[in-house]
Amino acid sequence: MSQSDLILNIRLIKSFEYRNIKYLLLKNVSPSTTGKELKELIDNKIRSQPNLASFLNCAFDTIKVYTLSDQSFKDQSLVINFDHEDWIIGDSETLESKGVSNGAEISYFNMEQYQNFKKNPVTKW
Q1: Residue 51 within any structural domain of the chain
Q2: Domain encompassing residue 64
Q3: PANTHER family, alphabetically (predicted)?
């Protein structure tokens, strides 16, 4: 691990309405990692860790920064932040280009479910 490598908290969001979220800690992630490479890394971890088996069939397709490590506040939503649409990391964008540093929280989710939840942000139990 080089000093520039990142440790990231990945928030796997299976359901927005039911707040079904599982955390995954990624170590040794290069700041030059692209969105596509990060998705592949996360998908490989999901397939290889038995405690994430219930997330195998989720149609994850989008990565978005939830909080940056230097942020002193979090969004009011416990599921995902609705502001900062510019924090969505495209396939060719690097983590560094989005200002991601050690300790950042990254959400991984399905964009269609996100858009539906954004229109009607009601949580269920």
Answers
A1: yes
A2: 6-119
A3: UPF0538 FAMILY MEMBER, UPF0538 PROTEIN C2ORF76
CATH of the domain at 26: 3.10.20.90
Q: What is the pLDDT of residues 101-123, one digit of tens each?
A: 999 999 999 999 999 999 998 88
For residue 9, what are the contacts with CB-CB under 8 A and spacing of at least 6? 23, 24, 25, 103, 104, 105, 106
